[in-house]
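> Could you send the 4Fe-4S dicluster domain-containing protein prediction when you get a chance?

Sure thing. Input:
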Amino acid sequence: MGRKGFFTDTTVCIGCKACEVACKQWNQLPDDGLHFTGMSFDNTGDLGASTWRHVAFVERPVPLQGQTTGVGDFSWLMMSDVCKHCQRAGCLEACPTGAIMRTEFDTVYVQPDVCNGCGYCVVACPFGVIDRREDDGRAWKCTLCYDRLGEGMTPACAKACPTESIVYGDLDELHARAESRVRALHEQGVTDAYLYGKDAESQPGTGGLNAFFLLVDKPEVYNLPPDPVVPTMKQRGAWTSVALGALGMAAAALGVVLMERGART
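Output:
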């Protein structure tokens, strides 16, 4: 089957939200009320149990690199966010029931008939993607359209994207396409362009993402963590600290005993 994933080029996203609609329609997800947050023109909030694709509208008080506008220093950034299907997936490692599995396409999938709603996966995701649904308590997130992949079809969001901002395919081919796109943007003067989460070398805390992005500003601007780390990667350091603490306490106790014996003699 090979490793599959998404490459999302934010520089060609127009914020149409066709990906959001296609995702909800195919996966039969409920709407989220369509309320404006008061922070932007976005009316679907963020990723959650019933929103597996979300287009963020980022309003910046700076122009796009190499461009000038007639309204002063201002620009919009659009980004279609989704589950990253991490190589080291915190949700998968934290799941105690085996409900979360890695598929034959190297994606991360939640089996709803096995999930018991414990929520360990929710706190283990460094991106805040996976969430529990209020009506049934179980955890839900993007499946990368696992059912469509099984039939040789393109995921609904990528199929609906009119600008090819979202591209689905073999990871190796996506990497080559993304690197070529970055080089082209640099040649055009957009030297701020870079790839976020392409591989383990660029993002060791997750081992790289199967859904990675081309950005032109800091990750925080897009509401992405600058240095995401799967919680289990910190276990070794935590247990080392505990062991060193225990050894210190034992050494102190031994010292007290020896001092008392010395005082008696």
